[in-house]
Please model this.
Amino acid sequence: MTINLKDVHVVYPGMPNKPILNIQSWVVGPQEQVFVHGPSGCRKSTLLNLLSGMLVPKNGEVSILNDRLDQMDQRQRDRFRANHIGYVFQQFNLIPYLNAVESVQLATHFGKHATSGVRQNEIEALLEKLNISSDDWHKQASTLSIGQQQRVAIARALINKPTLLIADEPTSSLDQDNRDNFMSVLMSLVAENNITLVFVSHDLSLSRYFNRVDALSDISSLDGDG
Ligand SMILES: Nc1ncnc2c1ncn2[C@@H]1O[C@H](COP(=O)(O)OP(=O)(O)O)[C@@H](O)[C@H]1O
Ligand SMILES: [Mg+2]
Model:
């Protein structure tokens, strides 16, 4: 299994008695694309932080690609994330003064294939595939349109060939046209590269792109007020 959570309990630091996530079992198979929805504040980002090892559970098993994140130390989790997981955020988190090519290049320094030079062609091919024309490759990220910035963010997330891609409301700041464009490019790249995708959003209209749709409230049950 790509993701296998068992009896996982999450609390925030300093609040040991307040259950934040309470997951009996949640399994995602290889190359599944799962849409997880729920209203703002329902702990979608917290779930993603757990999957990527940025947050460790109070107890329970977090198995990603058959490795136990909950048994790793922070260094091992950071390494694991760099090697296997791609992340696309709501705010694309591009460094404003780097251009499109450099933004993607930066990610290659952290990945398992960390080499130089040769990657340039790969980066350019990927940007091309994402409909970012060569005229725009050397413009600073901050001068690209929002839609282009979000597509550069996909390129950055995919350049290290992650097995698991995590997307945290990546379409929230896009208008309808950019949203449709972003989703179709994302879904075709995910299919083409056999990537497992966990995509969270409050926007239920996006569920039409997925064949598996889970409500966060069905993944995590909360006692009391949560
Ligand atoms: N480290 C933390 N300590 C305390 N509260 C937190 C922490 N991280 C997030 N929260 C709170 O938990 C709630 C849910 O968080 P989040 O996972 O971001 O929800 P969502 O992504 O569904 O909007 C928010 O109210 C947020 O303020
Ligand atoms: Mg969130």
In short: The radius of gyration is 18 Å. Residues 3-219 form a domain with the Rossmann fold fold (CATH 3.40.50.300).
